[in-house]
Amino acid sequence: MSSPAIHCLFLLLLITISSVAADDTLTVYQALESYGFPIGLLPVGVTGYELDPSSGKFKAYLDGTCSFKVDDYELKYKSTISGVITKNRIRNLKGISVKVLILWLNISEVIRDDDELEFSVGIASANFAVDNFEECPQCGCGFDCVNGERKGVKLSLNRFVSSLVD
Ligand SMILES: *[C@@H]1O[C@H](CO)[C@@H](O)[C@H](O)[C@H]1NC(C)=O
To answer: How far does the signal peptide extend, from start to end residue (predicted)?
Structure first.
């Protein structure tokens, strides 16, 4: 390796010493999968992420805040989601909240247990089948538009837009 290359490497190490830049060959969704989680934990449109593989500390960035409804729940994502991810477990989760009845509660932990995902909001937790998260939800629309249950203008527009982006 030439010395400028070593110099660059050293700089890179210094810059990323506390938050190792994610291996950019993996998308954030593939990274989730490598820890045993389905891609649908994060909505479509994550613009970047950082992951320190040694500690599992991560940050994922969205274009802005994101919210959508899933059945009786309303979910809200902040533009920065952070936490500590290890195999089958995400703890210290920050940035995702769920509206239960009239209360907004922070989802602090997600555990993969076989075919189920357990979401913890501190005082309570709820289990959902992993199958529900095979697709990424879309901001403002949720899972329904992915499943094609909403056959309105929104869906065809989204399909149209994504075909342009591809
Ligand atoms: C949820 O977390 C935010 C910080 O991310 C905090 O300001 C808010 O008070 C928390 N809400 C609850 C209900 O704990």
So the answer is: 1-22
Q: Which domains does the chain have, with CATH numbers?
A: 3-165 (2.30.240)
pLDDT digits (tens, 9 = 90+) for 98-139: 998 888 999 999 999 999 999 999 888 999 999 989 999 999
**Structure confidence by residue, pLDDT tens digits, 41-53:** 999 999 999 999 9
| Atom number in ligand 1 closest to CA 122 | 14
Confirm or reject: Cβ of 94 under 6 Å from ligand 1: yes
> Hey, is 62 helix, strand or coil?
strand
Residue 47 φ/ψ, nearest 5 degrees: -90, -20
